[in-house]
Amino acid sequence: VRAVLDAIQSRIDRNSRGLRVLYALMFEGLGDESMLRERFRAFNASVRDDFAQRITAGQDDGSITPTVDPAEEAAFIVAGMRGVGYQWLSDDLSGEQSDDLQAFIRWSSR
User: Fold this and answer.
1) What is the pLDDT of residues 67-89, one digit of tens each?
2) What is the pTM of this model?
3) In whole angstroms, what is the distance from residue 15 CA to residue 11 CA?
4) SS3 readout for the chain
5) For the chain, which terminus, N or C, has the lower number of CB atoms within 10 Å?
6) Angle CA 9–103–37, to nearest 5
């Protein structure tokens, strides 16, 4: 999980344009009958599933406590990523490392 979040941080540090486009499309997709809405619903479910599988693998190898609910933790991670990403963009931190993202990465690695 930490490796994925670190990769996201690295990608943002190199070029935030992709993140800006992603968020623009996500907000455009909030329309009632938007095709984008269905695509992002599926995308978010896929990302949550991927994190849940990684958490389960961590539980299997002993690196993540078995008391963590993988689906619930994955939902928190994705929600946190979306929130931190939005704040980072809205605060116009392009070209700067996000302290909020670093704090979130530390939190998710607990």
Assistant:
1) 999 999 999 988 888 887 777 77
2) 0.75
3) 6
4) CHHHHHHHHHHHHHCCHHHHHHHHHHHHCCCCCCHHHHHHHHHHHHHHHHHHHHHHHHHHHCCCCCCCCHHHHHHHHHHHHHHHHHHHHHCCCCCCCCHHHHHHHHHHCC
5) C
6) 60
* 67 Cβ contact list (under 8 Å, min separation 6): none
83-105: b (≥16 Cβ within 10 Å) or e: ebbeebbeeebeeeebebbeebb
Tokens 């670190």 map to which residue?
Answer: 6
Cα–Cα distance, 29 to 24 (Å, whole number): 9
The first and second tokens of residue 101, run together, are: 């993202």
